[in-house]
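Q: Here's a chain of 173 amino acids. Please give me its 3D structure as tokens.
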Amino acid sequence: MPHVAILAAPMPCAVAAGDPFAALVARQSRFVFQVAWTVLRNAHDAEDVAQETFLKLYRTGSWQRMDDERAFLARTAWRLAVSRSRHRKRPDPSERCDESPDPERSAIASDLHSTVQRMIDALPDELRVPLALSAIEELSSARIAEMMDIPEGTVRTRIMRARELLRKKLEAL
């Protein structure tokens, strides 16, 4: 998975080395990028959302009032990413590449990866996002529930339904 450059856009002069906000960005930029990438499945858009998240926090000063840093950042990034995803078309999973040394294994792995990725991408957002946050980001169902502003039981049910749908589709291959 690609990683986010720590805010490529220049920050205001007030954010200097040793500043608590700069420390927050350094500490959490990768996490914010991963949350955005989970929703958007596109590195460039995820980087934009990560930057937008930190810029929004800086402008409003809300970063100084966070009780749970990761939950607050995840919820903000998730909401911005969902908003952005509604305004763009989905990426083509076949554009991804695998850099295996063996061409035959690479082709097989790429085909399987593309198939699974298409299946995951075909899931409705209400199932895909909790599954990705749980499996890729390794967030607890309580944390996901807090981020998505839904009950924890609903998160568990959606993850279970998503896994069941994927299992049935894979068995049908």
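Q: Can you summarize the key feature?
A: Helices lie at 20-40, 43-60, 69-85, 103-122, 125-135, 141-148, 152-171.
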